Amino acid sequence: MTDPSASPRLPRVTGGLFLLGALTFATAATVLSSTFDWPDILREPPGVVLPAFHAGGPGLVWVWFATAWTYGILAVPILLLPAALERQGDPVLRAATWIGTASVVLSVIGFLRWVFVVPSLAGTWAGADPAGRAAVEAAWTAQHQFGGALLGEHLGQVLVLTWSITVSALILYHRILPGWLGVTGLVVSGIYLLNQGEVLATAVAGFPVWEPAGLIGSTGWGLWVAALGVTLLLRPPVHGAPHRGRLSTTAPRQIPAGHRPDTLREGTPS
After folding, report:
1. Across 115-124, 192-201, 254-263, least confident range
2. For every residue of 8-51, which 3-state class applies, written as one string?
3. Alpha-carbon distance 101 to 119, whole Å?
4. Residue 8: what are its φ and ψ, rounded to 5°?
5. What is the C-alpha separation between 32 and 218, in angstroms, rounded?
Protein backbone atom coordinates (compact mmCIF):
# COMPACT_ATOMS: atom_id res chain seq x y z
CA MET A 1 0.00 0.00 0.00
CA THR A 2 1.42 3.41 -0.95
CA ASP A 3 2.47 5.64 1.93
CA PRO A 4 0.40 8.87 1.58
CA SER A 5 3.12 10.88 3.30
CA ALA A 6 5.38 10.22 0.30
CA SER A 7 3.01 11.94 -2.12
CA PRO A 8 4.91 14.39 -4.34
CA ARG A 9 2.08 16.87 -3.71
CA LEU A 10 2.71 17.03 0.04
CA PRO A 11 5.63 19.52 -0.12
CA ARG A 12 3.49 21.81 -2.28
CA VAL A 13 0.52 21.54 0.07
CA THR A 14 2.78 22.23 3.05
CA GLY A 15 4.46 25.15 1.31
CA GLY A 16 1.12 26.58 0.24
CA LEU A 17 -0.17 26.47 3.81
CA PHE A 18 2.98 28.18 5.14
CA LEU A 19 2.57 30.91 2.54
CA LEU A 20 -1.18 31.22 3.17
CA GLY A 21 -0.67 31.49 6.93
CA ALA A 22 2.09 34.09 6.60
CA LEU A 23 0.17 36.28 4.15
CA THR A 24 -3.24 36.13 5.84
CA PHE A 25 -1.76 36.78 9.28
CA ALA A 26 0.25 39.72 7.92
CA THR A 27 -2.94 41.15 6.41
CA ALA A 28 -4.94 40.75 9.63
CA ALA A 29 -2.09 42.16 11.73
CA THR A 30 -1.80 45.18 9.43
CA VAL A 31 -5.51 45.91 9.83
CA LEU A 32 -5.18 45.49 13.59
CA SER A 33 -2.20 47.82 13.70
CA SER A 34 -4.00 50.52 11.74
CA THR A 35 -7.23 50.32 13.76
CA PHE A 36 -5.94 49.61 17.27
CA ASP A 37 -2.26 50.68 17.28
CA TRP A 38 -1.19 47.07 17.85
CA PRO A 39 1.29 46.00 19.19
CA ASP A 40 2.31 49.29 20.82
CA ILE A 41 -0.98 49.56 22.71
CA LEU A 42 -0.15 46.34 24.57
CA ARG A 43 2.25 48.32 26.77
CA GLU A 44 -0.26 51.08 27.56
CA PRO A 45 -2.06 51.22 30.93
CA PRO A 46 -5.59 49.76 31.16
CA GLY A 47 -7.07 53.28 31.35
CA VAL A 48 -5.91 53.73 27.75
CA VAL A 49 -6.46 50.21 26.36
CA LEU A 50 -9.98 49.54 27.65
CA PRO A 51 -11.72 52.67 26.34
CA ALA A 52 -9.91 52.32 23.00
CA PHE A 53 -11.05 48.73 22.71
CA HIS A 54 -14.62 49.60 23.71
CA ALA A 55 -14.68 52.34 21.07
CA GLY A 56 -13.64 49.82 18.43
CA GLY A 57 -16.91 47.93 18.82
CA PRO A 58 -17.71 44.52 17.30
CA GLY A 59 -15.57 45.24 14.24
CA LEU A 60 -12.42 45.29 16.36
CA VAL A 61 -13.41 42.02 18.01
CA TRP A 62 -13.71 40.37 14.60
CA VAL A 63 -10.29 41.70 13.59
CA TRP A 64 -8.82 40.03 16.67
CA PHE A 65 -10.70 36.84 15.79
CA ALA A 66 -9.22 36.88 12.29
CA THR A 67 -5.75 37.61 13.62
CA ALA A 68 -5.95 34.63 15.97
CA TRP A 69 -7.07 32.05 13.45
CA THR A 70 -4.92 33.21 10.54
CA TYR A 71 -1.95 32.65 12.83
CA GLY A 72 -3.47 29.30 13.83
CA ILE A 73 -3.17 28.12 10.20
CA LEU A 74 0.58 27.67 10.81
CA ALA A 75 -0.03 24.67 13.07
CA VAL A 76 -1.01 22.53 10.06
CA PRO A 77 2.12 23.00 7.88
CA ILE A 78 4.34 22.73 10.97
CA LEU A 79 2.84 19.27 11.56
CA LEU A 80 3.20 18.33 7.88
CA LEU A 81 6.80 19.53 7.47
CA PRO A 82 8.63 16.32 8.54
CA ALA A 83 6.69 14.27 5.98
CA ALA A 84 7.10 16.98 3.33
CA LEU A 85 10.87 16.81 3.85
CA GLU A 86 10.77 12.98 4.04
CA ARG A 87 12.31 13.07 7.52
CA GLN A 88 9.53 11.57 9.62
CA GLY A 89 12.06 9.47 11.53
CA ASP A 90 14.27 12.40 12.58
CA PRO A 91 13.83 12.66 16.38
CA VAL A 92 15.10 16.26 16.49
CA LEU A 93 12.66 17.45 13.84
CA ARG A 94 9.87 15.45 15.42
CA ALA A 95 10.45 17.11 18.81
CA ALA A 96 10.69 20.54 17.17
CA THR A 97 7.41 19.89 15.38
CA TRP A 98 5.50 19.34 18.61
CA ILE A 99 7.19 22.36 20.19
CA GLY A 100 6.18 24.51 17.22
CA THR A 101 2.61 23.23 17.30
CA ALA A 102 2.32 23.94 21.03
CA SER A 103 3.61 27.46 20.43
CA VAL A 104 0.88 28.17 17.90
CA VAL A 105 -1.80 26.95 20.33
CA LEU A 106 -0.46 29.22 23.08
CA SER A 107 -0.31 32.23 20.78
CA VAL A 108 -3.86 31.62 19.54
CA ILE A 109 -5.04 31.53 23.18
CA GLY A 110 -3.29 34.85 23.74
CA PHE A 111 -5.03 36.39 20.72
CA LEU A 112 -8.47 34.96 21.49
CA ARG A 113 -8.65 36.52 24.95
CA TRP A 114 -9.35 39.75 23.06
CA VAL A 115 -12.46 38.02 21.70
CA PHE A 116 -13.74 36.20 24.79
CA VAL A 117 -12.34 38.10 27.81
CA VAL A 118 -11.50 41.71 26.98
CA PRO A 119 -14.91 42.81 25.56
CA SER A 120 -16.61 42.14 28.89
CA LEU A 121 -13.93 44.00 30.80
CA ALA A 122 -14.04 46.96 28.43
CA GLY A 123 -17.83 47.18 28.60
CA THR A 124 -17.82 47.01 32.39
CA TRP A 125 -15.09 49.65 32.59
CA ALA A 126 -17.05 52.03 30.33
CA GLY A 127 -20.12 51.94 32.59
CA ALA A 128 -18.41 51.87 35.99
CA ASP A 129 -17.68 54.56 38.53
CA PRO A 130 -14.07 55.34 39.55
CA ALA A 131 -13.99 52.59 42.17
CA GLY A 132 -15.44 50.07 39.73
CA ARG A 133 -12.98 51.09 37.04
CA ALA A 134 -10.09 50.51 39.43
CA ALA A 135 -11.34 46.98 40.06
CA VAL A 136 -11.74 46.30 36.34
CA GLU A 137 -8.27 47.66 35.62
CA ALA A 138 -6.81 45.26 38.21
CA ALA A 139 -8.63 42.35 36.55
CA TRP A 140 -7.44 43.55 33.13
CA THR A 141 -3.81 43.66 34.27
CA ALA A 142 -3.98 40.13 35.70
CA GLN A 143 -5.43 38.55 32.57
CA HIS A 144 -3.16 40.63 30.33
CA GLN A 145 -0.01 39.46 32.08
CA PHE A 146 -1.13 35.83 32.17
CA GLY A 147 -2.83 35.36 28.81
CA GLY A 148 -0.79 37.94 26.90
CA ALA A 149 2.70 38.37 28.31
CA LEU A 150 3.13 34.83 29.68
CA LEU A 151 1.25 32.53 27.30
CA GLY A 152 1.23 34.43 24.03
CA GLU A 153 4.34 36.61 24.05
CA HIS A 154 6.74 34.60 26.19
CA LEU A 155 5.92 30.91 25.80
CA GLY A 156 4.36 31.31 22.35
CA GLN A 157 7.29 33.24 20.92
CA VAL A 158 10.08 31.31 22.62
CA LEU A 159 8.68 27.95 21.55
CA VAL A 160 8.03 28.96 17.94
CA LEU A 161 11.55 30.39 17.73
CA THR A 162 12.88 27.11 19.10
CA TRP A 163 11.09 25.45 16.18
CA SER A 164 12.42 27.84 13.53
CA ILE A 165 15.98 27.72 14.89
CA THR A 166 15.90 23.91 14.89
CA VAL A 167 14.49 23.74 11.36
CA SER A 168 17.10 26.23 10.15
CA ALA A 169 19.93 24.26 11.77
CA LEU A 170 18.67 21.02 10.19
CA ILE A 171 18.48 22.72 6.80
CA LEU A 172 22.15 23.68 7.08
CA TYR A 173 23.30 20.35 8.55
CA HIS A 174 21.44 17.99 6.22
CA ARG A 175 21.19 20.31 3.18
CA ILE A 176 17.54 19.41 2.74
CA LEU A 177 16.67 22.91 1.50
CA PRO A 178 18.76 25.84 0.20
CA GLY A 179 21.41 26.99 2.66
CA TRP A 180 20.35 30.65 2.53
CA LEU A 181 17.03 29.61 4.04
CA GLY A 182 18.81 28.11 7.03
CA VAL A 183 21.07 31.13 7.51
CA THR A 184 18.26 33.69 7.30
CA GLY A 185 16.12 31.56 9.61
CA LEU A 186 18.81 31.63 12.28
CA VAL A 187 19.37 35.37 11.89
CA VAL A 188 15.74 36.51 12.04
CA SER A 189 14.94 34.06 14.83
CA GLY A 190 17.86 35.41 16.86
CA ILE A 191 16.72 39.00 16.37
CA TYR A 192 13.13 38.12 17.24
CA LEU A 193 14.33 36.36 20.39
CA LEU A 194 15.69 39.71 21.61
CA ASN A 195 12.07 40.89 21.80
CA GLN A 196 11.83 38.85 25.00
CA GLY A 197 13.55 41.75 26.72
CA GLU A 198 10.42 43.85 26.27
CA VAL A 199 8.21 40.98 27.46
CA LEU A 200 10.29 40.31 30.56
CA ALA A 201 10.39 44.02 31.34
CA THR A 202 6.66 43.85 32.05
CA ALA A 203 7.46 41.62 35.03
CA VAL A 204 11.05 42.55 35.94
CA ALA A 205 11.58 46.27 36.33
CA GLY A 206 14.65 47.57 34.56
CA PHE A 207 15.16 44.52 32.33
CA PRO A 208 17.14 45.66 29.25
CA VAL A 209 15.01 46.28 26.18
CA TRP A 210 15.98 46.71 22.52
CA GLU A 211 12.82 48.19 21.04
CA PRO A 212 13.49 47.50 17.32
CA ALA A 213 13.73 43.75 18.02
CA GLY A 214 9.96 43.28 17.98
CA LEU A 215 9.32 44.99 14.66
CA ILE A 216 12.43 43.73 12.86
CA GLY A 217 12.20 40.24 14.31
CA SER A 218 8.49 39.64 13.74
CA THR A 219 8.59 41.07 10.21
CA GLY A 220 11.71 39.11 9.30
CA TRP A 221 10.35 35.92 10.81
CA GLY A 222 7.08 36.25 8.89
CA LEU A 223 9.00 36.77 5.64
CA TRP A 224 11.12 33.71 6.44
CA VAL A 225 8.00 31.58 6.91
CA ALA A 226 6.70 32.84 3.57
CA ALA A 227 10.06 32.06 1.95
CA LEU A 228 9.95 28.55 3.44
CA GLY A 229 6.53 28.12 1.88
CA VAL A 230 7.65 29.33 -1.55
CA THR A 231 10.73 27.07 -1.42
CA LEU A 232 8.57 24.02 -0.71
CA LEU A 233 6.14 25.01 -3.45
CA LEU A 234 8.96 25.20 -6.01
CA ARG A 235 10.89 22.19 -4.72
CA PRO A 236 11.15 19.45 -7.38
CA PRO A 237 9.67 16.09 -6.38
CA VAL A 238 12.11 13.58 -4.90
CA HIS A 239 12.15 10.26 -6.71
CA GLY A 240 13.18 7.70 -4.18
CA ALA A 241 12.91 3.96 -3.90
CA PRO A 242 9.67 2.26 -4.93
CA HIS A 243 6.95 2.38 -2.31
CA ARG A 244 6.40 -0.69 -0.21
CA GLY A 245 3.87 -2.99 -1.80
CA ARG A 246 4.50 -1.84 -5.39
CA LEU A 247 5.00 -4.74 -7.78
CA SER A 248 8.53 -4.96 -9.18
CA THR A 249 8.89 -4.84 -12.95
CA THR A 250 12.43 -6.26 -12.85
CA ALA A 251 12.69 -9.85 -14.11
CA PRO A 252 13.97 -12.35 -11.51
CA ARG A 253 17.60 -13.29 -11.81
CA GLN A 254 18.13 -16.72 -13.35
CA ILE A 255 20.37 -19.04 -11.34
CA PRO A 256 22.27 -21.53 -13.52
CA ALA A 257 21.84 -25.19 -12.73
CA GLY A 258 24.44 -26.55 -10.38
CA HIS A 259 25.02 -23.26 -8.61
CA ARG A 260 24.09 -22.81 -4.99
CA PRO A 261 22.41 -19.41 -4.36
CA ASP A 262 24.28 -18.88 -1.10
CA THR A 263 27.70 -19.16 -2.73
CA LEU A 264 26.94 -17.83 -6.19
CA ARG A 265 29.43 -15.32 -7.52
CA GLU A 266 29.30 -13.42 -10.80
CA GLY A 267 29.65 -16.23 -13.36
CA THR A 268 31.99 -18.31 -11.16
CA PRO A 269 30.93 -21.91 -10.41
CA SER A 270 30.84 -22.88 -6.77
Report:
1. 254-263
2. CCHHHHHHHHHHHHHHHHHHHHHHHHHHHCCCHHHHCCHHHHHH
3. 28
4. -65, -15
5. 15
At 158, give phi and psi (nearest 5°). -60, -40
Rounded CA separation 100/90 (Å)? 15
State phi, psi for 239 to the nearest 5 degrees: -100, 105
* Contact between residue 149 and residue 191 where contact means Cβ atoms under 8 Å apart: no
Task: Classify residue 241 as exposed, middle or buried by CB count within 10 Å of its CB (0-12, 13-18, 19+).
Answer: exposed
What are phi and psi for residue 265, nearest 5 degrees? -125, 160
Q: What kind and span of H or E run contains 132?
A: helix 130-143
Whole-angstrom distance, CA of residue 121 vs CA of residue 137: 8
Identify which of 151, 159, 56, 154 has the alpha carbon closest to the alpha carbon of residue 112. Answer: 151
Over the chain, what is the mean pLDDT?
89
Would you say residue 247 has pLDDT above 70?
Answer: no
Give the CB-side neighbour count of residue 194, counting CA atoms within 13 A.
17
- The burial class, CB within 10 Å (0-12 / 13-18 / 19+), for 24 is middle
pTM score: 0.85
Beta-carbon count within 10 A of 148 CB: 21
Identity (one letter) of the amino acid at 218? S
Separation CA 66–CA 28 (nearest Å)? 6
